[in-house]
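Quick start: read one record
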Amino acid sequence: MPIYLHLSNLVFDKRILEKKYPGGLKQFRLDTKFDRIERSEEDGLICSLPAMNVEDFDLEPFVDKGLHWDAEAQRSDDFMAISRYGGPHWQVAWLEVDSEEYPTVAWHQHTDPRIIARAKEILNMTLGEIDRLVEEKGDLMKVIHGD
């Protein structure tokens, strides 16, 4: 399912974290205090840490734990930095966004295409239309999933 993007985001593929991060996703969550961060986002395939600015992210702990970082090219294959007003700072094969310049949501390449289409449809609705759907369904995720 697509995740909502905040001002700046560091997005991780959960499978890469399980494979490369010592202790896997569980240890990543502990090290980053993921569950205590109010605006952290996740679905079954990706997770995202928020910040005001991309420069606020300290990449060193992730690199020290074995995640890829090419200092010369200023990019990684294991995670991606995305700014709400400016878009992705580099590309990775596993992540897509709804807009390259002003993205609102991001999703893993293996996300169900029907869910992506529904999220894009909702992005084009007015707030009144979204409020009405949430009132009917009781939960925004149910609106996106069409439950």
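The chain has a mean pLDDT of 91.
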